[in-house]
Design brief:
The protein is mostly helical and 97 residues long. Helices cover 59% and strands 0% of the residues. The protein has one domain.
């Protein structure tokens, strides 16, 4: 699946699509809803993505660099998820004995 992740860059450009569903910023929310919910305004700065837009550089980077960044981000996400599941399972197994 990580190898297919660059489709997230290629297909929207090909089909003139907007942002991915649910990955909206405050400007897009205001455009869609006509307003920005108060909770979103209040907590919008609370969390910053470790790799914004799954890209290690700016959006002005070459398409090749963006594709490689997407794949690396996918693999890092898989690795982080696997590590968390492993640690939780080790913790649960240790407490069962």
């Amino acid at each position: 699946m990580a190898l297919l992740s660059p489709l997230g860059i290629l297909l929207p450009g090909r089909f003139h699509a907007e942002d991915a569903w649910g990955e909206w910023g405050m400007n897009t929310m205001e455009k869609l809803l006509g307003y920005v919910p108060q909770g979103l305004k209040k907590y919008s700065e609370l969390w910053k993505a470790p790799i914004p837009d799954y890209n290690f550089c700016s959006e002005n980077a070459s398409m090749t660099f963006q594709i490689v960044s997407y794949m690396i981000s996918g693999f890092l996400g898989i690795l982080a998820t696997a590590l968390i599941v492993f640690l939780i399972s080790r913790f649960l197994i240790k407490h069962e004995k």
